[in-house]
Task: structure prediction
Amino acid sequence: MSASDLTTHEQILATAEQLFSRRGYAGVTLRDIATAHKMRHASLYYYFPDGKDQLYLQVMERNFQRHQEGVRAALLSAGDDPRRQLQAVILWFIEQPPLDLTRVFHADTLHSPNAQRLLALAFDSMLAPIVDALERARLAGQVQLLDAELAALMLINLAQGVHALPGLLLTSEDERQRMGAQMLEMLWQGLRRE
Result:
């Protein structure tokens, strides 16, 4: 592909990502993407010869790559303190557009091998860095864990859940950070009474 083709390819991916994030895989057609991108429907096949599945996979691969880079950067920015690391991860997820993993893996009708590939990408990009950080903290005696994968899933789901809250609760960056800190504190301390 030429440089202009690569630019167009990236622009199509950005347009498709916006549509898929709002309506899911099943709720978007190639015609919808072509219309939103102001191009002919048939022209999409030049960039994505295998059609909608190929386009969706590339959108999600790009999305997961961005998440992997963001999660790793958040962990690094917080140093070696596991509490600060988890808080940085929560805040990073809160600041991102919502990623409805339930819809990606259950409601969207991708063919099974593609669904398995996306599941592996999601694990590698979002969960694995958090699991690694939690395991390092466990080995250093800084945290007690029954299951690092479950703890990482809980952390991501808590952070993603912020996007489901009414906008009145999160009117500013300070409110999002405050909520992220409270979420982490609840996860860190548990719900026990002392």
User: Anything to note?
Assistant: Residues 71 and 89 are 6 Å apart (CA to CA). The two ends are 63 Å apart (CA to CA). Residues 112-139 form the longest helix (28 residues).
